[in-house]
Amino acid sequence: MEDMTSAGNGTAAEVVIPVTGAALGAHLAIPPQAAGLVVFVHGSGSSRHSPRNQYVARYLRDAGLGTLLFDLLNEAEEGDRGNVFDIGLLAGRLSEVLSWVRGQQAARGLPVGLFGASTGAAAALWAAADAGDGVAAVVSRGGRPDLADGRLAAVRAPTLLIVGGLDHTVLELNRQAAAQLTCEHAVEVVPGATHLFPEPGTLQQAATLARDWLVRHVR
C-alpha cells in the first residue's frame, strides 16, 4: 500500500493494510489539523461497516480526531468462529495495524487512542498492555474487557468502560475488569441501554462519553 500524504482538507481513503497472513480492508479519515487518531476495534460478527462504530467515528472526527476503521479478520478467517474469540490473535493483528498506521505520513506523530466494542475491547486492552505508553487512551463500548484477564493490570492508558444499564451480565463483567485496572479508569453506565445501544438516544450518549474521554486524553 502506498504511503498517503495529507492535504489541506485532510485525508480520507479506503485502504488495504498488509498484516501477517492477510490483507485487511480499512477506512482512514483524518480531518485537517487533527489532534490525534482513534483506531476502532470491532467485536465478533462485525466489520468496519458497523453502523454503530461509524456513528461514533463521525462524532470523533467532528471533534478533530482522525479515525481508522478496519476489518480485524478477512472473509476466510471469519468463517472460523474460533478466530472471532481468539483475543491473542486479534490483539496481535491490532498491533500490526498500529505499526502500519504510524508509518503513514498523514498519521505520523499523532497520538493514538483505541475504541473497542464487544470482543474488540478485549483485543484493544491486550494490545494497549503490550504497547505501554504507545497508546494514549482506550474506550470500550459494550465491551468484554474481562476477556483480556491477565493483561489488565499492565494497561497504562486511561481507560473508559461504557456499558448499557440494562446489559446486566456485561455490566458486572466490566466492573470486575475495572477492579483489575491500575491505570486511570472509569465505568460509565448509560441508563436504559441494552448491549448494542439500540434504544433512542443511548448510542448518542455513549458517543458523547467516548468523545469527551478521547479528546481529553488523546489531545
Automatic annotation (TrEMBL):
It comes from the Bacteria. Residues 33-139 form the Serine aminopeptidase S33 domain. Pfam families: Hydrolase_4. This is Serine aminopeptidase S33 domain-containing protein. It comes from Catellatospora bangladeshensis.
